[in-house]
Amino acid sequence: TCDTGDRQSTAAVHLKEAAATIVERLKDVATFEGQDAVFECRLSRETAQEAQWFLGDVPLQSNEMNEIRVQGTRHSLILRKVTLEDCGSISFRVGQHSSAA
């Protein structure tokens, strides 16, 4: 706001969050049945954008079988005690960017 006494002018600043990009992509994981499978990827920066993990086309959430972690720019998925039914494509999506293994 600029106030000259008899006149006043006001303006506002609006910011949009820049999109994060994936700078460290997912890598394929081979493990034995009954062990954990760990997938990681790293973003260009911390972001409030919605990030999502998928097994095939099924969105994953943290529960007793899947652990999803975010530590700064590093996003991790741990599939606990994998079975043969867990074989398939894992993907990570944030904004318009995605990576698969």
From TrEMBL:
<keyword id="KW-1015">Disulfide bond</keyword>
<feature type="domain" description="Immunoglobulin I-set">
    <location>
        <begin position="21"/>
        <end position="94"/>
    </location>
</feature>
<keyword id="KW-0597">Phosphoprotein</keyword>
<keyword id="KW-0963">Cytoplasm</keyword>
<dbReference type="InterPro" id="IPR052385">
    <property type="entry name" value="Obscurin/Obscurin-like_Reg"/>
</dbReference>
<dbReference type="Pfam" id="PF07679">
    <property type="entry name" value="I-set"/>
</dbReference>
<dbReference type="InterPro" id="IPR013098">
    <property type="entry name" value="Ig_I-set"/>
</dbReference>
<dbReference type="InterPro" id="IPR036179">
    <property type="entry name" value="Ig-like_dom_sf"/>
</dbReference>
<protein>
    <submittedName>
        <fullName>OBSCN protein</fullName>
    </submittedName>
</protein>
<dbReference type="GO" id="GO:0005737">
    <property type="term" value="C:cytoplasm"/>
</dbReference>
<dbReference type="InterPro" id="IPR013783">
    <property type="entry name" value="Ig-like_fold"/>
</dbReference>
